[in-house]
Amino acid sequence: MRQKGISLNIRPVNPEEEDIADDHVATSADTPMREDAFNMDDEEKIDLIEKHFREIMNILGLDLTDDSLNGTPRRVAKMYVKEVFSGLNPKNRPHARLFENKYNYDQMLVEKDITFYSHCEHHFVPIYGKVHVAYFSSGKVIGLSKINRIVQYFSKRPQVQERLTVQIGKEMQRVLQTEDVGVVIDANHMCVASRGVGDTNSKTGTAYFSGKFKDENIKREFLNYINSK
Q1: Is residue 52 a known part of a binding site?
Q2: In the predicted model, is pLDDT for residue 60 greater than 90?
Q3: Under CATH, what is the fold of the domain 98-227?
Q4: Which of 87, 179, 189, 219 has its CA 20 to 30 A from that of 45?
Q5: Where Zn(2+) is bound, by residue (predicted)?
Q6: Which is the catalytic residue, given 24, 52, 122, 177?
Q7: 3 is an active site residue
């Protein structure tokens, strides 16, 4: 539950802007990947991650002969490749079929409170919260579940919230063939809550506004709707 509404003065993310003063701010909308990232298949990756994670557990002094711990390296490896980081692989990118806007709906469409789970790329601990997406049709519409799938695809990779916001916004523009897209993310960061400063109450908000959503009245309509119950 949000403790307070998302304000109009939320700082929009500019994908072209570089912020060299803060190394926690991404300078590219693309997830940093090596060119050979997919030379290995998933099973090879799982085998290697299992081996290395077993070594990490050994270094920590854990007894891997224990029934509860023995299968953990394999479980973690499969989880990384098949689940929580599956969005790194472009073959998992959702195919979004478009439909003609036969009903001539020309107002804002909003899907709010899309739950997402991601992982901070700095500490590999969870980021989780809500994504709110809106767009104006340029003649095509998309199935609502595909918006959720787009959010999940980009969430399932090591992330920073700024980059995630831009990636969802740009993908919505690409898929829907429209500039008129708004994205707001309201998230909890376990790297803040469970370590370091240990602040369990703070939330982070980011926004991506393009096309009509740069108009203050349109932006206000969007934010008012997502803040309503």
Answers
A1: no
A2: yes
A3: GTP Cyclohydrolase I, domain 2 (3.30.1130)
A4: 189
A5: 120, 123, 191
A6: 122
A7: no
